[in-house]
Amino acid sequence: VKFVYDFTEGNKDLKDLLGGKGANLAEMTNLGLPVPPGFTITTEACKVYLDSGEEPAALRDEVSAHLDALEQRMGKKLGQADDPLLVSVRSGAKFSMPGMMDTVLNIGLSDKSVQGLAKQAGDERFAWDSYRRLIQMFGKTVLGVDGELFEDALEAAKAAKKVTVDTELEAADLKKLVTKFKKIVKTEAGRDFPQDPREQMDLAIHAVFDSWNTDRAKLYRRQERIPHDLGTAVNVCSMVFGNLGPDSGTGVAFTRDPASGHQGVYGDYLQNAQGEDVVAGIRNTVPLAELERIDKKSYDQLMQIMETLENHYKDLCDIEFTIERGVLWMLQTRVGKRTAGAAFRIATQLVDQGLIDEAEALTRVNGAQLAQLMFPRFDESAKVATVGRGIAASPGAAVGKAVFDSYTAVKWSRSGEKVILIRRETNPDDLDGMIAAEGILTSRGGKTSHAAVVARGMGKTCVCGAEELEVDTKRRRMTVPGGHVVEEGDVVSIDGSTGKVYLGEVPVVPSPVVEYFEGRMHAGAEDADELVEAVHRIMAFADRKRRLRVRANADNAEDALRARRFGAQGIGLCRTEHMFLGDRRELVERLILADTQAEREESLKELLPLQKQDFVQLFESMDGLPVTVRLLDPPLHEFLPDITELSVRVALAESRQEPHENELRLLQAVHRLHEQNPMLGLRGVRLGLVIPGLFTMQVRAIAEAAAERKAAKGDPRAEIMIPLVGTVQELEIVREEADQVIAEVEAASGTQLKLSIGTMIELPRAALTAGQIAEAAEFFSFGTNDLTQTVWGFSRDDVEASFFTAYLEKGIFGVSPFETIDKDGVGSLVKLAAKAGRETRPDLKLGVCGEHGGDPESVHFFHEVGLDYVSCSPFRIPVARLEAGRAAV
Ligand code: ADP
Ligand code: MG
Ligand code: MG
């Protein structure tokens, strides 16, 4: 195998092997853009190293060969004393992991070559600045020295000289700083800073490999669901210098605004600076547009390159560049992250520009982004004063208590508080706190700062660079203009879509996208916003493309009507249990307590018209569309009073010698019905078989409701669903009774009701015997919540709190199987049952009604296994429609 690729050998499709950065450096090289020469060590080499603890045997020679070629090309040798070639050693995994992995610049400098560099550049200050940066980065990331020690020494040097920014330090100061830094390395790492350039390079390469497995990197991957076994590539890239004086500098740019999607000049530039200075916020950057004034030639060239890149990648790109004495160099590009709103807008803009087609547009957005756009926003008309304004870095409306460090953010959020994490700027150590917070507020840094990039990636609200806010993390407070002090625990609100910061709680209003789905805002109308327009168009693309139908889980007419507005094509699950609660509880108690069949029938008779009325409304609201009604599922004791409470009542009545006949009977019933394991007990079809008349009453209510709707010239399409069936015999018995009831109602009303009867597949045995069950079922609806419970033997109500966190941390699964369907286990039962069912009954209708029906990844799975529809809660319907469309691309 080949472990090293020159930038001229790769291309953008080799991300698995070369990582995102390496693949795109190669792509830019091949496009003829000015990329400093270099080479990439593959993720394969990293994997061997991480598995065995050693480099693959061939790697050293391959690196040597590529280094030789690089030296030849550059006309100087790595670290050569009189004229050193310097390189950066840069990490770069398949997926970008901002701030997670570490890069070392200026490799090749030593006590000797720093002199050579000074002479060659004619700039002593520059050479020593580069050297101190190398020792600092190398010390921190390769030798594991606490970075603060270097920072403190740098601060001390500035203080001693009474200057505020690093560019004001002169060569002599920097020389002293280098001595100091070397001492820090010696004491802290127990070794000298290596003077041999090749040793520097090799150690840095290993450090990049190792950084794949830092806690920070692992946490980020878990968050982003990036597999842990990909490994990182390492890029070795010849250095270009942005710190060579005012005609040099470094910057970042976007080909479009990653917040709005608008085309234009977006980015930040910093003169006389190197590498991460721009994003670290150590000095204030200028907007990219100012580069035109500073260096028109480079600016024009950059604009042209940006156009080339956008047309080539057919998407928004972000870019890192450096200008060395008026010469522009490209250091990185990738298809850029963007806000959810921008994703929709950019996708439609690119369609309009003729760069991509509708199908491609669907791949540029996703359900998670749509869900994010459906979040509520702040009420603009609320009379709450803004106290500051920063950069709208990641949208959303977040309200919470101010906290000034990650530790507190995590602690408070664990105890149920909503918090806003406020920092001057964030760094990778703040990741826990950022995850725990509702939103993130920083006083420094731009759209490309760590806070902004990471928050956008997590879909978390973020306002950054709110410079008029004075954040004092040590004293846990923030001073706002006018002098008011916000202490830890004070409530603040931040708006990631406008950048506004408010004191106190701002009321929230629904998002325009929800207003649109609700039919209160119309695409095409004059005042419709751009975002709504884009969502409208993308939804149309998805609806044209998708094969899966989307239904709603809804139990009442109000939810059903909303679901219809959101695009539901029927109800996939109407739970009937709420129809037994409230005022009806008493009737149900009587049913459960009945001693004789006559008593039982009495209460069922009273329940019947109530149930029927519920169904009439539901069928009316879903007129012309299928409505799947599930017969009673939960164990009966859920409808009875709590055992402890009831015992107390009985005991009290006894001691007061009050009559308590009924309470006592109730208590006995509760005891009788008490189960150790109710989820595996008397529920679902078992109830229907054990309590005579219960299911037939429900079936009659459904049939009579349908007949009533027919009489009113409606078009009811009811489907009767029997829950928790494990064997076809259960279904056959219920079905026989149901068919009889339906026939009676049809005869009485003189209409054909065309009711279909089917079952939920939610027990492993049902899935395994689906071929038999299909004999008695016209449809299957996979109840993947219970199926997940029963396949794994997990109690859904307990495991999330008890051990799922540990499982997630250990990587046993990347996401809870209750959230995203476990394809290998639960999913293969679904597949098997679907196949067996259709073998018995080719026109068997197949759907899913568990929570998974609205989960993007699961929707793709259900599409692949050939289900007819998914059913989910009304608010998730747009997401399911979109993902069903994406699945069909
Ligand atoms: P990250 O993935 O954190 O962005 P990079 O490898 O891109 O890390 O590098 C960190 C910083 O150093 C970036 O600003 C990058 O542009 C800069 N940089 C990397 N390599 C070079 C180089 N060869 N010459 C000049 N600057 C470089
Ligand atoms: Mg970095
Ligand atoms: Mg970079």
UniProtKB/TrEMBL annotation:
Mg(2+) binds at E762, D786. The active site is at H450, C849. GO terms for molecular function: ATP binding; kinase activity; metal ion binding; pyruvate, phosphate dikinase activity. It catalyses: pyruvate + phosphate + ATP = phosphoenolpyruvate + AMP + diphosphate + H(+). Residues 533-885 form the PEP-utilising enzyme C-terminal domain. Its EC number is 2.7.9.1. Residues 417-499 form the PEP-utilising enzyme mobile domain. Substrate binds at R575, R630, E762, G783, T784, N785, D786. Keywords: ATP-binding, Kinase, Magnesium, Metal-binding, Nucleotide-binding, Pyruvate, Transferase. Residues 57-284, 292-341 form the Pyruvate phosphate dikinase AMP/ATP-binding domain. Its cofactor is Mg(2+). NCBIfam families: PRK05878.1, pyru_phos_dikin. Belongs to the PEP-utilizing enzyme family. This is Pyruvate, phosphate dikinase. It comes from Streptomyces swartbergensis. The lineage of its organism: Bacteria, Bacillati, Actinomycetota, Actinomycetes, Kitasatosporales.
